[in-house]
Amino acid sequence: MKSLVLSVLSAAAIAVVATAAPAQTPTGAGRALFQQADVNNDGRLSRVEFDAAREGRFARADADRDGRLTMSELRALRPDGAPAPQRRPSREQIQKLRAIDRNNDRAVDLNEFRALNGDRFAAADRNRDGFITRDEIADLARAMTLGG
């Protein structure tokens, strides 16, 4: 479910914020998302930019504005161009949700979602320089899918 959440942000940064939704390679819509997340236009995402992108993605996905993402809201966070989610979540998706859902309310609240940011950022920042480049976000996006 972690990958669901981040792709489900993916980056990144699961948004107008690329990692949040590092959903794509650095071309087309993926490039636009990265540029939106890169608020200082330096060609890389800092941890602050990454976190802001993911939180923006969370807010947009929270269709009922209750501060929690249900499975259906999480599944709607798929990257642009990804196939539509199945009608029912897979067993693997449910298990991943349970791993993130620390209070067992069958939803992911903002604090549970934020807890993933550090792992997501570290996974994308391959060279450990404290920033995520377009190449790094593309690699992360390729490695992540809704199902796993």
TrEMBL record:
Keywords: Signal
The keyword Mitochondrion appears for this protein: no
Gene3D superfamilies in UniProt: EF-hand
Cleavable signal peptide: 1-20
Location of region: Disordered: 74-93
Gene Ontology terms for molecular function: calcium ion binding
Span of domain EF-hand: 121-147
Superkingdom in the source lineage: Bacteria
InterPro entries in alphabetical order: EF-hand-dom_pair, EF_Hand_1_Ca_BS, EF_hand_dom
Keyword Signal: yes
Record protein name field: Calcium-binding protein
